[in-house]
Specification:
heterodimer, A: Rossmann fold, 2 domains, six-stranded parallel beta sheet, four-stranded mixed beta sheet, about 10% strand, B: Rossmann fold, four-stranded parallel beta sheet, 13 helices, 8 strands
Chain lengths: ~500, ~250
């Protein structure tokens, strides 16, 4: 698996927010996607859109509840089509399956179309260590491969880079003159990669869906690179998560609408490729071998947990990233692993372990915008809450997310709020402190008029007053006003 | 005035209004009474438990939730002048007690009679026009739809209907209205840098709207936005919807 930096979210997010270039890139691209998605919702009408979401959710829920059955059916049908289905329990096993195929078939050059699961496995370094040349052929992936970075968005991996960044990168890595014309840059990448498609022995792809009843792998792309990767080389390996199976071609229809419309606002992507088995004797081209690797790598932990199971319904459209006000500020890399944004804050803790990723579920205001845009109606806020509950007071100190001070605060808060008399005393004590502070200033936290606290002396209030004022306690509580006469209705 | 609806409702005032904004609670009472509602106030009420629930302390949240269940057991209606606290009573309690059948039944009974303030006015009291509250307002205003009100309770049109029918009030357009203000309870102090960025965008949009007053149905969001506005020495006034509807607002 790639290096896990989920534990550094706080520091990484501070650094990300200090980067004006990143903010500009995030504003530009993510808001563009969301505007386009909204146009599709309006086109379908919100009622129809909602019915589509429910239909898709029902299909996913049914499939995940009967995953064993559909994986078995898929196995039968991939095999019947002349392909080979492999199950990998973790990243090492998945990488070894690919390495074994590459080794035994004397693979020298591999081309890849976009695959988030291969990012999750950190497959490229494994192949490169064996001396296999690996070429990412999705333009965004190609850019970040050249830059030796990781994706920062589920569907737009190089979203964090401006065209100037890419022009500099191309100039440095490809030894060409600096040229920030996007059309020219795309043409350059196309020229480099076109030869590689012809040289490649092995094509590696992800899968947006795999259809159990036919054993078909489905990928949707906009660049045509997916089709070249899966048809030109003599071997094709598809790699995806085991949750990507759907029952039938009939079921595929709804997802082919919802995925591109939610991801980029396109009605359909430029290419929809459906691949069933290797080249048949009557085919003019296509690979001699077809392998499909289904990866568990922590997914069965999600499957086993009823509260988190629906994270497996995700089709990786990225709509939750595009709407998330936290992602919009910190970008994808701050999340520290392959899957960023709201869905990443659920998936990463399950795949890399709570120990390292326990902070991610905290990094949300629980505003619920992600659930509203999710094409599968995944209740992300509820899962974030569940993860908070699982970690706040975990008996395992390495998983526990709440420091001793926070746990003590929760206890004191519950005690205080369980006793109106105690609360009344605390309020009076607070007012007394405010009064003393106005007569004999010690911390001088208040504004001159005494209405606001401007420099709170202790956390957590001092965290609040870094850039916001906090109202001071008024002379009377509502309880007191009620007792002093508001209770009698003289209207 | 409409005919007196002859309704009895208990006010769950919320701890933030009780402790920091009692004048909002007074306006809620004034508006309800003007509409003919007999307002009750169970005196031992404190916090609904949302701060501890949101941070994963479910045992503490249950302790506080049980108090609320008990205090409002006999209420005909429960009116809550906060989308977030109303969502706690109506939505989150069902999850908190999902495994405890007896308490779950009680939570369901509470959920069935709990309404957020604007929702209660429009859906229960059938207020079509804010002028029946006696409200008038000279000036411009924008409305911030709070997240839990919109997305947990599905209350979107009711506050707009009320605000839009206040005589004299001119509503302005708020860019990015449905984007979270960045409060999020403890999120605001756990990740202050992100929260500040979010509220910074919110106040930029509020200021750009040209409105004199910002209105919402949640004092926690308004505390956040007002705190940021005040730090910028802005003159924009921040009001709960009840204060706009109440001609005798303090």
């Amino acid at each position: 698996m790639p290096e896990i930096k989920t534990q550094d979210f706080s520091a990484a997010s501070v650094a990300a927010m200090a980067d004006p270039k990143l903010r500009r890139a995030l504003d530009r691209v993510a808001s563009g996607f969301e505007v386009a998605r909204l146009a599709r919702v309006a086109e379908a009408t919100p009622e129809v859109w909602d019915a589509w979401r429910q239909e898709a959710r029902d299909i996913k829920a049914h499939t995940i509840e009967h995953l064993d059955y559909y994986l078995d059916l898929l196995h039968t049908n991939v095999t019947a089509a002349g392909g080979r289905l492999h199950f990998a329990k973790d990243a090492d096993e998945a990488n070894e399956i690919v390495a074994h195929i590459a080794r035994t078939r004397n693979v020298k050059v591999a081309t890849k179309s976009k695959s988030m699961v291969s990012e999750e496995l950190a497959l490229n370094p494994v192949l490169e260590a064996m001396g296999v040349e690996v070429w990412e052929t999705d333009l965004g992936e190609y850019i970040i491969q050249l830059a030796e970075e990781t994706p920062s968005h589920l569907v737009a991996p190089a979203l964090h880079k401006s065209k100037e960044d890419v022009a500099e990168l191309f100039s440095e890595k490809l030894g060409i003159p600096y040229d920030e014309d996007i059309y020219h840059m795309a043409a350059t990448a196309r020229e480099v990669l076109r030869d590689k498609f012809m040289e490649a022995d092995l094509g590696i792809s992800g899968a947006n869906f795999v259809v159990a009843e036919t054993g078909t792998l489905v990928i949707i792309t906009n660049e045509g690179n997916g089709r070249l990767c899966t048809s030109a080389p003599r071997i094709h390996i598809g790699i995806t998560g085991m949750e990507k199976v759907i029952p039938s071609m009939q079921d595929l229809s709804i997802f082919l609408r919802l995925l591109p419309q939610s991801a980029t606002g396109q009605r359909i992507t430029s290419y929809v490729s459906m691949i069933t088995g290797p080249r048949r004797s009557e085919d003019e081209d296509g690979p001699e071998e077809f392998h499909l690797i289904l990866v568990d790598n922590g997914r069965s932990k999600m499957l086993a947990d009823p509260a988190l199971r629906e994270a497996l319904y995700c089709i990786r459209c990225g709509a939750c990233l595009n709407i998330c006000p936290v992602y919009a500020r910190v970008g994808g890399h701050a999340y520290g692993w392959v899957y960023p944004g709201p869905i990443g804050a659920v998936v990463s803790p399950m795949l890399v372990g709570l120990k390292k990723a326990k902070e991610l579920p905290q990094a949300s205001s629980l505003c619920g915008a992600c659930r509203e845009v999710c094409p599968i109606k995944i209740d992300i806020p509820r899962m974030l809450l569940d993860l908070r509950t699982k970690t706040a007071e975990s008996p395992d100190p390495s998983v526990r997310s709440a420091p001793a001070s926070e746990r003590a605060f929760a206890r004191v808060y519950a005690k205080l709020m369980s006793s109106p008399a105690l609360l009344r005393m605390a309020t009076r004590f607070g007012r007394f402190l405010q009064k003393v502070e106005r007569v004999i200033p010690f911390f001088s936290p208040m504004t001159k008029d005494g209405k606001w606290i401007r420099n709170a002396p202790v956390p957590p209030l001092s965290k609040w007053t870094r850039s916001r004022d906090l109202p001071t306690l008024p002379k009377q509580t509502f309880h007191e006003l009620w007792e002093k006469g508001l209770s009698s209705d003289d209207s | 005035m409409t005919a007196k609806p002859n309704v009895t409702a208990d006010l769950y005032v919320t701890c933030i209004i009780d402790q920091l904004y009692p004048e909002v609670g007074v306006s809620v009472v004034n508006v309800l009474r003007r509409l003919g509602v007999a307002v009750g106030f169970p005196k031992d009420q404190t916090c609904c438990g949302q701060p501890v629930y949101n941070t994963g302390f479910n045992r503490e949240a249950r302790t506080l939730a049980k108090r609320v269940l008990e205090q409002f057991r006999d209420s005909e209606y429960v009116v809550v002048p906060s989308g977030s606290c109303a969502a706690t009573l109506r939505v989150f309690y069902l999850e908190l007690f999902a495994e405890e059948p007896a308490l779950l039944e009680e939570a369901k009974a509470l959920a069935a009679k709990t309404y957020e303030f604007s929702e209660f006015l429009v859906d229960v009291l059938k207020v079509e026009d804010a002028s029946v509250c006696g409200a008038t307002h000279q000036g411009t205003a924008v409305y911030h739809p709070s997240c839990h009100l919109m997305r947990e309770l599905g209350v979107k049109t009711q506050p707009r209907k009320l605000l839009g029918s206040v005589p004299g009030l001119e509503e302005k357009e708020l860019e990015g209205a449905e984007i979270c203000c960045g409060f999020g309870g403890t999120f605001s102090v756990k990740f202050p840098h992100i929260s500040e960025g979010m509220v910074g965008d919110k106040i930029t949009n509020v200021q750009a709207s040209g409105a004199e007053t910002l209105v919402s149905c949640d004092m926690s969001c308004l505390m956040n936005i007002a705190g940021a506005l005040n730090r910028q020495e802005s003159n924009i006034k921040v009001r709960h919807l009840a204060q706009i509807l109440d001609p005798n607002s303090l």
